[in-house]
Amino acid sequence: MRGPDERCGSLFSYVGLEDRVPRSHPLRAICEIANGALSDLNADFEAMYAPLGRPSIPPEKLLRASLLQAFYSIRSERQLMERLEFDLLFRWFVGLGIDDPVWDHSVFSKNRDRLLEGEIAAKFLAAVLTQREVKRLLSTEHFSVDGTLVEAWASMKSLKPKNTDNANGPPSGGGRNEEVDFRGEKRSNRTHASTSDPDAMLYRKGAGMEAKLCFIGHA
């Protein structure tokens, strides 16, 4: 028997977010570790916020949302808020209910920057390392060396020669970025740099592969 193609959903749902996330999903283990580290930072959070005034976005939710942005390579806070609007997995990890409103992307950015300026991010990562599930994976008896490339959010169009003035007025193509033809141009980290992210550099993963603006990490 062919099932009906009905697009109208039920008015009420009796399945919670906790039941919709599989028990084997890797974010469950990460969420447990993150929540343990965030509970250790409760005193730091209390010192950052005044006892009176308008309630801000909870710092715990800010940091959990920032983790999702890094895990899933979401390019902007606007796209992150759009994902939180419809993705039940994201809502569960951050701590939002199904009917809870999502924050404005500009408000999220301002509140998150306040946390980063207060060195909370470094304290959060240090608290993660002290968790029991993570600490048993660490040892001083050996070390590992690994090199990895983290792709930058800067566009390849931002790669300009270092010895030229880039303030040539608005783009000729009518868009936000100037139309650039790289054909026949030799670019290297010695002669070129990104105007939007000067710390990003050109790297390639192997011979014959394209070069991208990346950060190289050694651990």
3D architecture notes:
- The chain has 219 residues and is an alpha+beta fold.
- It contains nine helices and five strands; from the N terminus they run H-H-H-H-H-H-H-H-H-E-E-E-E-E.
- The strands form two sheets. A three-stranded antiparallel β-sheet has the order 1-5-4, with no helix packed on it.
- Helix 2 crosses helix 8 and helix 4 (59-71) packs across helix 7.
- The radius of gyration is 22 Å and the shape is globular.
Strand content: 5-15%
What is the makeup of the main sheet?
3 strands, antiparallel
| Helix-and-strand structural type | alpha+beta
Count of strand segments: 5
- Note the total helix count: 9
Percent helix range: 25-40%
Strand order of the largest sheet: 1-5-4
Spans where pLDDT lies below 50 across 5 or more residues:
none
Mean pLDDT: 83
Tell me the distance between the termini. 57 Å
Radius of gyration (Å): 22 Å
The multimeric state of the shown protein is single chain
SSE series:
HHHHHHHHHEEEEE
How would the global form be characterised?
A: globular
Number of domains: 2
How would you describe this structure in keywords?
alpha+beta; 9 helices; 219 residues; two-stranded antiparallel ribbon; single chain; 5 strands
Quick description:
By secondary structure, the chain is α+β, with helices and mostly antiparallel strands. It contains 9 helices and 5 strands.
